[in-house]
């Protein structure tokens, strides 16, 4: 068959919803439709829908905020899959994306001003908060002559480490991990606390992250990495 006709695409933070009409050219009865969102270097996320087009369309979940995806929509008959209609769209950008400045102007008390930095989390809308599963606070000793913010932000999760493997902070490490997200939550980096994103029941043999004291008179880069609940 020919390509189905896309009527609308509704974009969310980590979802997109496609509504369409049947193809005008057919070589038999439609068996099903396939809707896919793809990103270079990543597996496509696809939904297979029945021959009766859902009135609410098809929602693809588990996407990343502020990311442009290639979207394809095709129909199949007994003769096989037909030509797809292809478009590209960008999901809604998170309020936390990019160079968002944390609130360091309000009074955030720390027990040691030489080895700790205190700040408050930036505010985002409640709808986004409801989709946040957890966040990590990532720390690195900063060399202004060679370190770049974009390199640090683009470091994959697998490239991060624990403090005890960070060469005293020369490699980016996870200092804090917390479930959920609260606007203006107080964060203190360097208070030597430990955290884990596992529940108490599952903490056996789980490495905890150490929020190690910072080095006095040393420049640091600190950023927040947010993880979304892909099912919401």
Automatic annotation (TrEMBL):
Q: Give the domain of life.
A: Eukaryota
InterPro entries on file: FN3_dom, FN3_sf, Ig-like_fold, R-tyr_protein_phosphatases
- What PROSITE patterns does the database record attribute to this sequence? FN3
- Keyword set, alphabetical order: Disulfide bond, Receptor, Repeat
Annotated PANTHER family: FIBRONECTIN TYPE-III DOMAIN-CONTAINING PROTEIN, SUSHI DOMAIN-CONTAINING PROTEIN 1
Q: What is this protein called?
A: Receptor-type tyrosine- phosphatase eta-like isoform X1
């Amino acid at each position: 068959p020919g390509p189905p006709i896309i009527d609308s695409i509704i974009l969310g933070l980590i979802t997109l919803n496609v509504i369409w009409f049947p193809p005008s050219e057919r070589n038999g009865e439609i068996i099903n439709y396939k809707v896919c969102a793809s990103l270079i270097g990543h597996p496509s996320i696809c939904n297979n829908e029945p021959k009766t087009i859902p009135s609410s369309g098809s929602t693809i979940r588990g996407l990343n905020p502020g990311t442009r995806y290639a979207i394809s929509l095709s129909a199949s008959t007994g003769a096989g899959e037909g030509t797809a209609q292809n478009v590209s769209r960008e999901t809604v950008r998170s309020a936390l994306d990019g160079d968002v400045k944390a609130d360091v102007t309000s009074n955030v008390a720390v027990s040691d001003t030489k080895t700790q930095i205190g700040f408050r989390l930036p505010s985002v809308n409640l709808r986004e908060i409801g989709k946040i599963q957890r966040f990590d606070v990532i720390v690195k000793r900063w060399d202004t002559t060679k370190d770049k913010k974009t390199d640090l932000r683009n470091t994959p999760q697998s490239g991060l480490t624990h403090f005890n493997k960070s060469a005293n902070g020369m490699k980016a490490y996870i200092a804090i991990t917390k479930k959920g997200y609260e606007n203006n939550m107080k964060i203190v980096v360097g208070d030597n606390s430990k955290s884990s994103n596992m529940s108490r029941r599952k903490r056996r043999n789980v490495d905890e992250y150490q929020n190690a004291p910072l080095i006095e008179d040393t420049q640091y880069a600190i950023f927040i990495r947010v993880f979304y609940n892909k099912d919401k």
